[in-house]
Amino acid sequence: MQRRTVTDCSAGRFAGLVGLPTGGRARVGRRCHDGGVCALDLADLDPEQVAAVRAPRGPVCVLAGAGTGKTRTITHRIAHLISHGHVRPDQVLAVTFTSRSAGELRTRLRSLGLRGAAARVQARTFHAAALRQLRYFWPQVAADMPWRLVDAKLPLVVRAANRVRASTAPDSVRDLLGEIEWAKASLIAPDDYVAALAAHRREPPLDASLVAEVYDGYETLKATPDGLLLDFDDLLLHTAAALENHPAVADEFRGHYRSFVVDEYQDMTPLQQRLLDAWLGDRDDLTVVGDANQTIYSFTGATPRYLLDFSRRFPDATVVRLERNYRSTPQVVSLANQVIGAARGRVAGTRLQLIGQRPEGPEPTFAEYADVPTEATAVAAEIATLIATGTPAAEIAVLYRINAQSESYEQALTEGGIPYQVRGGENFFARVEVQQAVHALRATASRDDLPDRSRRGEAMVSLVRATLASVGFTATEPAGTRARERWSALQALVRLTEEMVGDDDRLDLTGLLRELEVRAAAGHPPTVQGVTLASLHAAKGLEWDAVFLVGLSDGAVPIAHVLHSNGSVADAAALEEERRLLYVGVTRARQTVRLSWALARTAGRPTRRRSRFLHGLVPEASAASRVAAADQRGGARLPSCRVCGRSLLNAGDTLLGRCSSCPAELNAELLAALQDWRREKAAQLSIDARAVASITTLTAIAEQWPTDERALAAIPGIGQYKLRRFGAEMLAIVISFSDSRHKTAGKK
Ligand code: ATP
Ligand code: MG
Q1: 694 domain-assigned
Q2: Whole domain around residue 699: which residue ranges?
Q3: Which ligand 1 atom is nearest residue 542's CA?
Q4: Residue 42 scores a pLDDT above 90
């Protein structure tokens, strides 16, 4: 092998690189600044990205908006550090939050030409990394005390709740588990739970001391006579503790892992940060990337403060900001900027205006439907059209707020014969065909009549195909929805095998089975070809050509529990997080983004309205045409708010002509004058003042300033009778006020 003659082009704390010129593309190519030869081509990065990639070893923080290449930057940085010999691939630990994004990191590393080396970089979720480490170090810290992972947490919570007579209704149990998980992720012990609630301004779902007791009971129940049961959070805690309390463990670990990378750093929990700190010790070889405006896991205890405070903690850090969005068309970028532009608070203060770099694409579309099944059918039809016109199904996603929403789309796609996969829904590894396949592969692995060379490398791919044929895998895709689903799952296993062999041509069947086990434990399924159905949370960090954001009604996005029953905001911070979720959703799309909502769950009376976050974003013509379309299908036509354009659902709002929560330019003096007139008129005619005009009607007049009969007739509550009887007097009052308003405006 040729010996590399790299004279260090970046590790030597080479300050000049950080101040690269901005604009245009960096053509650093293969020849490095100081004449050394790099194995990695950085020509497909912009100057700021290059600055982060080539920053000296040490703390690096990439703080940037969606789609600006944060993940790309860290994969290049890892590849750069490796190809320059600063670290060995197996000394790098890159962590992400979901197994899908860990998989994405691995795939992107592979695509950088690292092949075998990419497979040796540890790109894992926090949980998967901790699980591996704890398995390895456990004998050193707990001798032969047995432990195993908790299979299911809910039954434990039920038992703990029963002990203290707390409710064991399914919703309560889920809420209790949510609290336990939040407390553990926030490093709050059962005894401190009650006090911590106030400090975190968190509303407990049940009586706080009862929750604390259930939490305490849950922890106690995990110490069984047969050994310890550990949940996912315990994995992190125990791993951190092993490093913190056992110098030999810390030495061994730190001797091995030298370089740490965290993607999506805005969503760190205190528990994850504690583990990261334990990994680091007093070292600072840490690259983090994140976007505070994509913080969407606060309810689990995640906080953007570690990202926002990074350069305070590491004053020497190289901080890079990226604004150019490479993922999406300018149309998608513009919508994203508008969605997040309305955000408020500290996090919002860090947002950057994204600048779209891709060629123009279609305008985002907005569609309103009478009910959810109609919406789902229409979305499935549009997906069928996209597929028919060349967009691969795997490049399309339907994103929703809560997993329960997937059902309607599963049904509509099944009816349309469109393959799909549900993210975070059914467990890939629990599917019958996958279990049969793994079983068959194990049987093949244990055969002693096969030559060794057929079990590894390219030959192994054929062996896997032949083995899967025994459980029904065919060379071509079969017809029929269920048969196709089955086939797609098996096909995903074949593709995974091919990919892994591509990385490591010495991989054997035992290695493949081990990888499948690790993936099953970490919940990391291989990619199945088909439309992705996922919650907005699960879509973080991912991208597709076409994205359908569905079910965008108030009460879904934003979710109902951040609102009071009358629609006013109950929790302003949580409302901002909901807005960020929509921002995350929009920014997943490369080319096409379609936003839709339905006015009712099932056919019948409208009960919902469009998400408040779409206020000002929906071109009225498109909303109107969709409502008309809903009408033709027998859906209801509703009056809409003149400020935000959403459908008006209650009588008060309908009379006002706007949502009561929408801002309006109300002239208080005009309203007072109209009220005076109404009182006089009622007295004069000896009728009830409300028979002259309702206060809502007067308010609408004081907001809308009608100065002719037509405009006055458009005010709700003014029919022909009132127009004839009181129209002239009302108009005279408004006109006298608008004259004086003009005069005042003229003087300014
Ligand atoms: P998110 O905030 O959603 O996690 P991100 O900042 O991590 O986004 P990436 O996923 O790394 O962004 O990049 C978005 C897309 O833009 C990817 O398809 C990536 O390959 C592409 N991309 C990134 N940087 C460049 C570049 N300099 N030139 C061309 N394409 C790029
Ligand atoms: Mg990313």
Answers
A1: yes
A2: 668-747
A3: 3
A4: no
